[in-house]
């Protein structure tokens, strides 16, 4: 009886491990699909998109809106100040962040070499809910962008982007610190800090 019970435990542990790895592998598949969309819908059409910023921004949005919750991303950037903001301020902050990130991402994507984008095999993962998927982007002018996409499974079962680390720069953490500084510089006035945030991002786009 003990031997049978032990066998059942081993069986279920193997099944659970396989299911967990399958779920993690789906996170990588999601990134593969996003990268392929970048390659075919943007990088391969860069000659046209370089002359049409509005079309470029729309295409980037079409790709990212399926995997990025910009409202949630903006909430993380606002951090402890999110609860103090009004619904209107939260919405405006999210829109400013989204619009600027789309422009910035679009401009950067036009510099990639479409034939040298490599989604790496999954490496060791941490104990949290996020799954890290590493991608190497070769730039046409030389140099490599090492991007880690941190994916988190939503309640609906799909995988969403929760954070991005580019060449070891944690963008979620960096943005949160920057907004915190702007709050301090504007005497904790959220309205003024959002305006300063807009101006800061505009200079980087």
TrEMBL record:
Gene3D superfamilies registered for this protein in UniProt: Tgt2/MlaC
Source organism per UniProt: Marinomonas foliarum
Protein name stated in the entry: Phospholipid transport system substrate-binding protein
Keyword Ion transport: no
Coiled coil: none
Alphabetically ordered keywords of this record: Signal
Signal peptide: 1-22
InterPro entries: MlaC/ttg2D, Tgt2/MlaC_sf
Signal as UniProt keyword: yes
């Amino acid at each position: 009886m003990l031997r049978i019970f032990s066998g059942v435990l081993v069986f279920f542990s193997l099944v659970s491990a396989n299911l967990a790895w399958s779920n993690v592998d789906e996170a990588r598949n999601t990134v593969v699909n996003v990268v392929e969309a970048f390659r075919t819908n943007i990088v391969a059409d860069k000659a046209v998109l370089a002359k049409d910023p509005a079309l470029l921004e729309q295409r980037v949005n079409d790709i990212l809106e399926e995997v990025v919750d910009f409202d949630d991303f903006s909430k993380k950037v606002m951090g402890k100040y999110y609860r103090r903001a009004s619904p209107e301020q939260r919405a405006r902050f999210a829109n400013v962040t989204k619009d600027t990130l789309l422009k910035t991402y679009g401009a950067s994507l036009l510099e990639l070499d479409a034939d040298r984008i490599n989604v790496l095999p999954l490496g060791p993962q941490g104990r949290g809910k996020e799954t890290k998927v590493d991608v190497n982007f070769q730039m046409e002018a030389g140099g490599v962008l090492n991007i880690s996409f941190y994916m988190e499974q939503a309640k609906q079962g799909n995988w969403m982007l929760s954070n991005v680390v580019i060449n070891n720069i944690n963008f979620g953490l960096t943005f949160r610190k920057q907004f915190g500084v702007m709050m301090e510089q504007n005497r904790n006035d959220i309205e003024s800090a959002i305006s300063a945030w807009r101006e800061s991002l505009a200079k980087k786009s």
